[in-house]
């Protein structure tokens, strides 16, 4: 039993089967089991009844024929063959009689060789009997009756082919019936499972709407007592999660806003010291360099938190202008001082309608991400994307991104493999999340895939201006 359970669990892990399919299979299997069991019992009972009834009728007829033969022999009948031919043998059968060492038959070709020796031995002892034998033409019921007054033994051979044919038809009909019952059961399972899973589809649809930004989406009220509690609990859970998200967003926004004032003052003070760096001792100068670097990172984190808060509050807006995609990418690279080649399909000069500040931030985040984890972006490729979209790809020759992390890295505070690898650079986990939010705000998307020459390829798709 443990082995069977282990096999079942292994199959479920390797071959996940949808719940609806399992319900259909279960209903069909149960219906087949019930119908099959009923068919087997019915076939057994009917088979016994038909065989016994046919055998009883044949034996009664044989006794009747034997009495007729006895009376005719006692009356002096000598044409025994004609007598046997005139008997009313049940169904398609033949009659044989042995008298005084001579055999007589109702049909040509019928002889004592067709009679089983065991039955002949019984009849010779003045006992009636019957036996079913197999012949090349099918099963045959042989009945033997002694006629003591005339020193004769009377036999009837009754073919059972008609009975066998009837039983075969019955078994076929029962098998077909069991198959139909299984199909009906499977159909019932499909209908029932669809009805049962309908609330789950509603929950899935509402969850997808909420994930897409429709925060007001809720499950409609249900009058079903079994579903009412589920609907109420789900809606309450969504309300609580939304309220918690709003509290966290407000907290992040308030903290970030409160930090900007002291941070600006601190930055100004550091700037004053930086201008007098030449007058500082070497140790103090090195400390100031570290302080400036940390201050830049801290300032970027505060700005990112504020940006995330705007997205959460739904207050993020766009100030767009139409630019040539390749020219804009080159300007961002030039401003950063990055010497990265930009390739574009020949004759392809797409225009995009973007908020330059936001998109500059997106590109900067991708460039910084490539520098931090992949040794730098090797090239930027601009090419046609999906219908009506421009694809801007940032390629590198780094280790790439595992398939299981390609969606997670675009969520907040997700740092991919840096979570577990202490040798990898640490980040806030907000850069790629902001890039995804900015792309979505522009009506586009961002994804990561394998680069043609190895490494990662971050692709931003934005609507093309036609």
Task: Describe the SSE topology.
Elements: H1 2-14, H2 19-74, H3 80-85, E1 93-99, E2 102-105, H4 117-124, E3 129-135, E4 138-147, E5 152-159, H5 161-211, H6 225-275, H7 282-313, E6 321-324, H8 325-336, E7 342-344, E8 351-354, H9 356-374, E9 377-384, E10 389-396, H10 431-441, E11 445-450, E12 456-465
Task: Give a short summary of the structure.
The protein has 466 residues and is α+β, with helices and mostly antiparallel strands. The chain is built from 10 helices and 12 strands. Helix 2 (19-74) packs antiparallel against helix 5 (161-211) and helix 9 (356-374) packs antiparallel against helix 10.
Which labels suit this protein?
466 residues, alpha+beta, Beta-Lactamase, Helix Hairpins, Heat Shock Protein 90, seven-stranded mixed sheet, five-stranded antiparallel sheet, 10 helices, 12 strands, 17% strand
3D structure, described in words:
- By secondary structure, the chain is of the alpha+beta class.
- It has ten helices and twelve strands.
